[in-house]
Amino acid sequence: MNVKVLRRTPAPRPAIAAEAMAWTLLYVLGIWYADVFVVGPSQITLFWPAAGIAFALVVSRGLGWAAITSIAVLISHATFAQVPVAFVPFSVMSNLLGSLAGAYVVRAGRVQGADTAIGAFVITGGAVAMAAVSAGVGAVGLYVADMVPPSALPGAYAKWALGDLLGIACIAPTLLLLTQGRSAHADAPPTEHYARGVEKTAWAAAFAAAYGFVYWVGLQNSGYALGMVAVPLALLLWSALRFQPLWTAAGAMVSVFVIATLLGLGLAAFQPPQSLLDVLLLLGFLNLFATVPLLLAGSINDQRVAARRALRQMAESALQQQAELERLVTERTQQLDEANRQLEHASQTDALTGLRNRRYVARQLPLDLAFYGREAGNAHTPPHALFFALVDIDHFKAINDTRGHKAGDEVLQQFAGLLTGLIRSSDYAVRWGGEEFLLVLRPMPAEHVATLGERICRTIATHPFVLSDGSVISISCSVGFAEQAFEAGESALSWENLVELADASLYWVKQNGRNGWAVLRPQAGHNLAGLARDARQGAQALIASGSARVNSHRDDVGAHPRADALV
């Protein structure tokens, strides 16, 4: 049962008017029931159902709706509830001020719903406040209208307050549940968490049979017939344990109505209370009868809500932990990938010069050769050749021997930087080993090799190599080229074959004075694959056998393209 006033879309005025009329009629019926059916020979009203209706109305719909109580009281006094005229204003004010006081206490408590134990206690507090205020105003009215003597005012106040309290405990919980619907609590248990329909049907049948049994015992003129209400009380405890709070609230309401009717009308052996003490004891018993099952139902519903909240929080915590774990895994995976990339880069990079190493060549060159081979088949691709160049520093051992290995390392670092600046961004330089470097040059016109060879040799020879001790030295280099033309009918060589051809060309340069370049090409009637097969014989042997020719720095390079054509 939710007693929280929820924000809702304002209803159309005709709908509000119809609802107001329904509440007014219900309130009048509550007064009529108390006036007609629960008034015994002693003219003692056992309980006031209208108090519960007013309490539920103002709590659920707002303080402004308290005006309906005044209208309903005036209608009742004008039609069937005859009282002295002097008492009418006090009757109106007792209902109006009492309902406002009770609703104020409930709203100040800010409870989410009376289907919880704390909600039931707060509603009980509101009921006490309403009963106290209403009984106070009503008792004053009884005295002013000469309806009771001054000596009877304490008893009248007590009966009025307990009657209102019973009316609220009996009626208000059921009406609040019906008007507010299912609990708005985020962790309210769904319907399937309660007993099924078969058990509820059996309970309803047992509940009806229990009051039939109570009435039958009363027909036996037993003085202990009222004690048999323990049977329906046990059934109310059953409903509190197994069913939604609405079942317990409705069962308690029916119980109070049945017992009050039996006693008020003196049916069977049930006699209305005669003395003030009997009235107070009976009303106290009925208030406990109506309240205890609701408190139990609220407490059990709290446990259900707490269990669902715990499960929800555990699920949310698990999801958060899973998300955090996934984040950490993703972060660690990214770190591992980055570490692997760095490791892979380090494993393919020469530590001294920062150039690529043989490991990189073994992985990358097969891919490059396959790519260039596919591109050569494209009709729009010009007939270019892929070049490998092995570059060796002349007399490098002398530098290490005379100046030390530190000086040799500095020369190698500067030499690597010069080579990188001489090739295109799509080409790459590799430290092949020691003072030997490999250049992989993407396809270009075959005649450009002479320009590039001259450019490399001239740049190295004219560059001053400044050492850390301040001294400056000059060096030269030798360059051996190998080419793969990708022409029709020309079989593609492996990168290992091309390196061997470049090495043969380099060896020829070294044998012929160093500080120059050379490229080994097949003679007419021979092919590149044959040269690669016989490259280990050396360039000079291949030339002598007539299977190869050498183009080198000794040739006339005046007709070659300018050096900047390669940039």
UniProtKB/TrEMBL annotation:
Primary location class: membrane
Source organism, top-level taxon: Bacteria
Record-level GO cellular component terms: plasma membrane
Transmembrane parts of this sequence: 20-39, 46-75, 87-106, 118-145, 157-179, 200-218, 224-241, 248-270, 276-300
Reaction it catalyzes: 2 GTP = 3',3'-c-di-GMP + 2 diphosphate
Location(s) in or outside the cell: Cell membrane
InterPro entries referenced in this protein's UniProt entry, alphabetically: Diguanylate_Cyclase, GGDEF_dom, MASE1, Nucleotide_cyclase, Rev_trsase/Diguanyl_cyclase
Membrane topology listed for this record: Multi-pass membrane protein
GO biological process: cell adhesion involved in single-species biofilm formation; negative regulation of bacterial-type flagellum-dependent cell motility
Protein name: diguanylate cyclase
Origin species: Cognatilysobacter lacus
